[in-house]
Specification:
The protein is 37% helix and 7% strand. By secondary structure, it is mainly alpha-helical. The protein has a two-stranded parallel sheet with strand order 1-2. The longest helix is centred in the middle third of the chain and has 14 residues, at 21-34.
Length: 82
């Protein structure tokens, strides 16, 4: 979503499709407020970081997983929360 000015993630989120997305949003807002980052909190959220449509317009899930995106963000020195 930000190919021209990428940022290092401070938070990594993953979720299940059965999870309530509004609950996730509230948790993210609470975390950002609690640590004072507010709108500057950089989040890597698998929901938005992995193109999952499989419609031929973007990379396949397999192509993306071959780049090890989860491992890269987990090993990021800037990651403070998972």
């Amino acid at each position: 979503l930000n190919p021209t000015r990428p940022h290092d993630a401070g938070v990594m989120l993953s979720h299940t499709w059965a999870e309530d997305i509004l609950e996730v949003q509230n948790a993210v807002n609470d975390r950002a407020a609690a640590d004072g980052a507010g709108e500057n909190l950089v989040i890597w959220f698998c929901l938005f970081a992995i193109y999952q449509v499989e419609d031929g317009a973007g990379p396949t899930i397999a192509e993306q997983l071959a780049l090890n995106p989860f491992g890269c963000v987990i090993r990021s020195p800037s990651l403070a929360y998972m």
